[in-house]
Each structure stands twice: as structure tokens, then as C-alpha cells.
Amino acid sequence: MAAQRKRARLHEILAFAAVYVIWGSTYLAIRVGVETLPPLLLAGSRFLLAGTVVYGVLRLRGAPAPTAGHWKRSGLAGIVMLVFGNGLVTWAETRLPSNLAALLVAAVPLYVAGIDWLRPGGVRPPRPVVIGILLGAAGMVLLVRPDPAAAHPTSVLGVLAMLLAGLSWASGSLYARYARQHPHALVAGAQQMLVAGVVLLVGSALRGEVAAFRPEAVSLRSWVAFGYLTVFGSMVAFSAFSWLVTSTSPARVSTTAYVNPVVAVFLGWLILGETLHPAASAGAGLIVCAVIIMVTTRRARPYSTVGVPSRKPVPKKRRIAARAAASSVETKCPSRPAPP
């Protein structure tokens, strides 16, 4: 029994390390990738390849086929979160440094809380969360306007794209919270990646990226970044995150919201020599403090997990039926995938 607890603890530590480091490093990898790879082509190919592999493996392991309704709802979530969310991040990093992009995305929990509050029938957040929203808003002002004299149209467009990406991810997260998707979380995630990959590749073709693409013009480091994003960013870290969601508390999982930007800023400084204006550094500090306040507030549980929002309470009879149904397929397709 003691050996099992130690092994489970080790798995949890490795899974957290994977999510912290890999997800934090994806901003750097995207910045390197878009140096010579078209942004939408990069994002679309990444998600299509990763979604195909994950979906195929899960189906071979016995996961039930999604229904048409599952494809519709997961597809919509994938378009909102991955096309307008991650796709815009990838495009914006052709104009912004990776550290600024990561810090702008760090405000997603603030968007989730605000949108969920303002929607019809929304939930009013507790006072600490409101304080977190206000602190985060102040941090965003400092972050996007550290040096007005140095602002130019290219960077302004990048900042606007990042803000829209954050809003899209928050909106998609709230939609996924209420939409009834595939009962196996990894299958739903694979569906989201597949649909988003196809849509991003269509957008890439419409922008002329596919027609103008020349493989020989792509640098080795951009190819390496693409492979890293596909294998580690979209497969390994995603599997680790999904396992953590089922094995630890939402508050602990949500620490990724403020650890990832710290990792991204450090790697951007170490590898690409990126720096932050003092005012932007102060804004980043406010955003991190705001997110910490929100995810450690006990009553703020609906906003504590970015990308995997909590569900509405399920009646006792439905919970019993769901457990019985899950036990019948557990031997074919375990609901808790092993961490990488």
C-alpha cells in the first residue's frame, strides 16, 4: 500500500512537471516555429496530426464512437478555443515576443469569471474574485501599454489578437462547461483538435499560406519546434493534464494558470534574449497575483480550472447510473489515462 502511494505521488509530480514546463515552453516553441513556418499552417497541421493520433489510439483501445451531437458540440468548442484561441496566439507571435504573449494569455481566468458573471443567468463571483478581476484589469493596462512611444501598428495588432484569443478561450471554456460532449475527456479533446485542425488548414489555404509554402525554406529549428508542439505540447502535456484532472483537486490543477507564464518568461529571456519593460513587469505581477487570488478562493471553484470548467451538480440517480455505465467500459478504455 505504501509503495502504491509513493508510485502515485511520483506520477503526480511527473505529470505536474510536464504540464508546467511543456505548456510554459509552448509559447517559445510557437515563436521559433513561426520564424519560417506560416502561422495558420503550423497550428492547423499540429492539431490535425495530434488529434488523429490521440483519436485513433483511443478508438483502438475501445473508446465508444462519438455521436453526431458529440461531434457538433466538441467541434464548436474546438473552433472557439483552438481556432480563435490558439490560432490567434500563433498568428500574434509573428508580431509579439513569446513572453508578452504568455502574460496576455495568463489573464484567461479573469475573462472566464467576467463572462460567466455577465451571461444570462450567470453566477456572481465572490468578493475575492471581483478583487482579482480588478487587479488583473489593472495589470493588463500596464502590460499592453508599457511604452506608448514604442508602440507601432504591428505590435498593436498582435496585442489585439492576443486579447481576442483570451476572450475566445474563455468563451469556449464556458461553452464546454455546459455542453454535453463525449463522456471520455480525451476523446472529446481529440475531436476538438481534429475539427480545429481542419478549420485552421482551410483558413491557411484561403490566406495563401499553403500555395506559397516551400518546405526547403523552413529552418531546422522551426521544424524542431513544430515537432515539439505536436508531440509534447498537444499529446504528452494534454494527457498529463487530463490525468491530473481526475486524480487531484481543481485548485491544484489550476496552478498552471500562473506557473506557465513564469516558465514562458524565463525561457524567452534565457533562449531568445527577450526582456520586459519595468511597467510591463509590474503588470505581469498584478496579473499573477490576481490569478492566485481567484484560484485559491474556495467559493470561486467554477473559475478554478481553465479549459476544464466544473459542471452543474448531477442528481444522485444520474450519478449512480453514470458510475455503473463507466464500470462496464473501464476494462476496455480506462477513464484515467496513465501520465506520460
User: Helical region count?
Assistant: 14
Provide the domain count: 1
Helix content: over 70%
Q: What is the ordering of alpha helices and beta strands?
A: HHHHHHHHHHHHHH
* Spatial gap, N to C terminus: 23 Å
Report on the architecture of this protein.
With 340 residues, this protein is mainly α. The protein has one domain (8-329). Helices cover 73% and strands 0% of the residues. It contains 14 helices and no strands. It starts with a helix and ends in an 11-residue tail after the last helix. The relative contact order is 0.21.
Layout of helices and strands, plus pairs?
Layout: H1 2-33, H2 39-60, H3 68-92, H4 98-105, H5 108-118, H6 127-144, H7 153-178, H8 185-206, H9 209-212, H10 220-247, H11 250-253, H12 256-272, H13 278-295, H14 316-329
Concise overview:
The protein is mainly α and 340 residues long. The chain has helices at residues 2-33, 39-60, 68-92, 98-105, 108-118, 127-144, 153-178, 185-206, 209-212, 220-247, 250-253, 256-272, 278-295, 316-329. It has one domain (8-329).
